[in-house]
Amino acid sequence: MIPGSPHIALGEESDAANPVDSADSASNAEGGSVRLITRLAALGLAAGIVIGCCVLAYAPEVREVVFRITSESGANVPYDRALAELEAETRQTEKRVSRLRTKLQSALPRSAYLVVSTSDNRFELYGRGGLEREGVCSTGSYVLLRGGNDQEWMFETPRGMFRILEKRVNPVWSKPDWAFVEEGLPVPPPGARERYERGVLGKYALAIGNGYLIHGTLYQRMLGQPVTHGCIRLGDEDLEAVYRTLSVGARVFIY
């Protein structure tokens, strides 16, 4: 070849330009690789999020399938043991409930009885077949009355289990001392005529001890309120039902 020929000159220019082209090509390749890696990472993150959501959404179903497969294969021994223990505990609980139910039934009276709530001022009358009647009543007012000689009376209905000791028709009220103190009257001696008053207890009265009665009232509109001096007041129809249902010796539960 002839020195200085255009071919040689072109060849020289090509040789001079090769390092720059190689650097650009390497740079472009490296940039493409970075972009590819970035895209792959973004796709992997998105795929991970989707898979995580699917796991959360279908975790119960997956767990049930795994449990079923492992249970059938006998590989999941702890799960089977826990299930067996739970079933055994359930059987024991059922036995305890049955014993408690039997104990409760044996504790309930076999004959008719009355339940009185002093907080709600309501009653429930039970016969041999269960609940027969329920309604409102009136119980103690919890008013404290003070008299002379340091006397005082708290008008509350006693709580506990009592029995019907006596049944009366057209009862006469034997007024205690507090009835006169409350009215501001002098207290008469025992047996005085002014101590006896008719027509204020209703048609029936049932004694439960210590002067406490289940009786009627002239103030029907006050039923359902704590306004008595300790006795239990019932409406006329309820009183008659209680009188006819409960016999002497029947239990009265007051709470």
Question: What is the share of helical residues?
Answer: 40-55%
- Strand numbers in spatial order across the main sheet: 3-2-1-13-6
Tell me the domain tally.
3
Order of helices and strands: HHEEEEEEEEHEEEEHE
Strand segment count: 13
Strand content: 15-25%
> In terms of per-residue confidence, which ranges show pLDDT below 50 for 5 or more consecutive residues?
1-23
CA-to-CA gap between the ends? 129 Å
According to CATH, the homologous superfamily of the largest domain is L,D-transpeptidase catalytic domain-like
Largest sheet: 5 strands, mixed
Number of helices: 4
Average the pLDDT over all residues and give the rounded result. Answer: 81
The CATH topology of the largest domain: L,D-transpeptidase catalytic domain-like
Inertia-based shape: elongated
Q: So what's the CATH class of the largest domain?
A: Mainly Beta
Looking at the overall shape, the CATH architecture of the largest domain is Beta Barrel
